[in-house]
Specification:
This protein is 23% helix and 33% strand. With 185 residues, the chain is of the alpha+beta class. The strands form 3 sheets. A 4-stranded mixed β-sheet has the order 6-3-8-7, sandwiched between helices. A 3-stranded antiparallel β-sheet has the order 5-4-9. A two-stranded antiparallel ribbon has the order 1-2.
């Protein structure tokens, strides 16, 4: 499914949160990402295949934050009051044409400025995982490229060339891989 090019994702509302993740208000995506950034709810999905590899994507060149950098399978913002798992499943379909059973496995907060766009991510990020053995059908307005990679290779490349990757990917990988390995044990 391709994203509707007439929709302006920057105008959509996000849920503002405090340091514990409790909702405290709303604002637009664009307003939340203006410097210095306002803490808001987000999610990051990382899918595994049966061989234990993870699906990563290179963000499209038109992205307003961290364009052309490699990231987890998909990410986004739930609407205020929307369950995170529901929002993540919808976004997974929109960005990559995939459906998977998703499980929330942790959350963390971070702040990162994007020098190329001047925008700031300040997110309370819920991490979700799933297992799938299907090829993505990405929306080119969202995804520049994609790859299945081993977590070890990804960690090594993150350490060697961190500028290729979004600032949240290392923490997402750590939380997701720990949960995936525990579920396999």
């Amino acid at each position: 499914m391709l994203a509707d090019p007439s929709s302006d994702r920057e105008a959509l509302p996000v849920e503002l949160v405090d340091d514990t993740g409790a909702a405290i208000g709303t604002c637009s995506v664009a307003d939340a990402h203006r410097p210095p950034g306002t803490l808001h709810r987000a999610f990051s999905v990382l899918l595994f295949d049966r061989a234990g590899r993870v699906l990563i994507q290179q963000r499209a060149a038109v992205k307003t934050r961290f364009p052309l950098q490699w990231a987890n399978t998909c990410c986004g913002h739930p609407a205020p009051g929307q369950p995170v798992v529901e929002a993540a499943a919808i976004r997974l379909g929109e960005e990559l044409g995939l459906a998977a059973e998703l499980t929330e496995v942790g959350a963390f907060s971070y702040r990162a400025g994007d020098e190329s766009t001047g925008r700031v991510e300040h997110e309370y990020d819920h991490v979700l995982i799933g297992v799938i053995d299907a090829a993505p059908r990405p929306d080119p307005a969202e995804v520049g490229s994609w790859a299945w990679v081993s977590p070890l290779s990804l960690r090594e490349d993150l350490a060697a060339t961190p500028g290729k990757y979004t600032p949240w990917l290392a923490e997402v990988l750590e939380i997701a891989e720990r949960a995936h390995l525990a579920a396999q044990a």
